[in-house]
Amino acid sequence: MLLEGKKGIIFGALDERSIAWRVALKAKEAGASFTLTNAPVALRMGGINELAEICNTSVIPADATKVEDLENLFTQSMEQLGGKIDFVLHSIGMSPNVRKKRGYTDLKYEWLEKTLDVSAVSFHKVIQTAYKMEAINDWGSVLGLSYIAAQKVFPDYGDMADAKSLLESIARSFGYHYGVRNKVRINTISQSPTITTAGSGVKGFDVFFDYAEKMSPLGNADGDSCADYCVFMFSDMSRMITMQNLYNDGGFSSMGMNPALVADKLAENT
Ligand code: NAI
């Protein structure tokens, strides 16, 4: 019961494969109470109400790019949960360029702005809204979800790579300000490729899923292992960790070459 008595807000559960969905189930198991939220358009598509029932909570619609929606979300969440918030999960990503298969050398700039707003600036908006409303308890914990394309080139990840770099930078920059004022911790978890709606929307996803699976000594980290990590990061056990990008990737980020991949190639050629 690592999260006993803690109150949270979980963004981004669309269906049961969503990382946020896995986090909600684990946070519930760990004793937390929380509200769920997603963009109004997503609420019509997914099964988030089913998750709310399982978690004995409610869903508050909010477009994470709209500050007035976020203000309403924090106000209503504090009312429903009976006090300030201890943890926030930002599990949001979307690129119109990636969706519509516009490669990195042919970006449509209006769509790039949308990518950055939805996938990165919304993280700042969530945190700044909470900061101004004094909505998060001292020693609270805020998490965003990132991908290693922020550090290394994965050509088909397109403009999402730039969004993830910005997301990680916001965690560091705001981590300073919120840390000084309230000891609130802000981190990102850099997750293995995971089969979800957002993940599978990337061109060639199955290829880099298999590649990462073979390259990583432990194999790919799944959504449930990410959820376990999030629970730890929301708990007091991780109270001195802030402004970090933390890898939950089975060791992928430290690998240069894995002989298993070479062995596969040799087997293909014989
Ligand atoms: P998902 O598609 O289940 O979740 C993405 C969520 O973003 C959806 O619930 C969607 O409704 C929400 N969203 C989009 N626009 C929004 C807006 N304007 N306001 C509020 N919510 C909005 O996919 P997944 O994989 O669970 O994605 C969660 C996070 O994990 C994203 O940040 C993603 O980039 C990150 N991630 C995913 C990986 C993967 O391979 N699936 C790998 C590494 C990171």
Compose a concise summary of this entry.
This protein has helices at 19-29, 40-45, 48-54, 67-81, 96-99, 109-133, 160-182, 197-200, 205-215, 223-234, 259-269, and strands spanning 7-11, 33-37, 85-90, 136-146, 185-191, 245-248. With 270 residues, it is α/β, with parallel strands linked by helices.
Contiguous helical run count: 11
Number of domains: 1
Strand order of the largest sheet: 2-1-3-4-5-6
Derived from helix and strand composition plus strand pairing, the structural class reads alpha/beta
List the bound ligands.
Answer: 1,4-dihydronicotinamide adenine dinucleotide
Mean pLDDT rating = 96
CATH class: Alpha Beta
Strand content: 5-15%
Specify the overall morphology: globular
Helix content: 40-55%
Low-confidence stretches: none
Q: How many beta-strand runs?
A: 6
Round the Cα radius of gyration to an integer and report it: 18 Å
> What CATH architecture label applies?
3-Layer(aba) Sandwich
Structure, described:
This protein is an alpha/beta fold. The protein has one domain (7-268): NAD(P)-binding Rossmann-like Domain (Rossmann fold, 3-Layer(aba) Sandwich), CATH 3.40.50.720. Helix content is 48%, strand content 14%. The protein contains 11 helices and 6 strands. The chain has helices spanning 19-29, 40-45, 48-54, 67-81, 96-99, 109-133, 160-182, 197-200, 205-215, 223-234, 259-269; strands at residues 7-11, 33-37, 85-90, 136-146, 185-191, 245-248. The chain has a 6-stranded parallel sheet with strand order 2-1-3-4-5-6, with helices on both faces. Strand 4 (136-146), helix 7 (160-182) and strand 5 (185-191) form a beta-alpha-beta unit. The longest helix has 25 residues, at 109-133. The termini are far apart. The model has no long low-confidence stretch (mean pLDDT 96). The chain binds 1,4-dihydronicotinamide adenine dinucleotide (NAI). The site of 1,4-dihydronicotinamide adenine dinucleotide has 27 residues, from helix 1, strand 4 and helix 8. 1,4-dihydronicotinamide adenine dinucleotide binds at residues 11-12, 14, 18-20, 38-39, 42, 63-65, 91-94, 118, 145-147, 191, 193-194, 196-199.
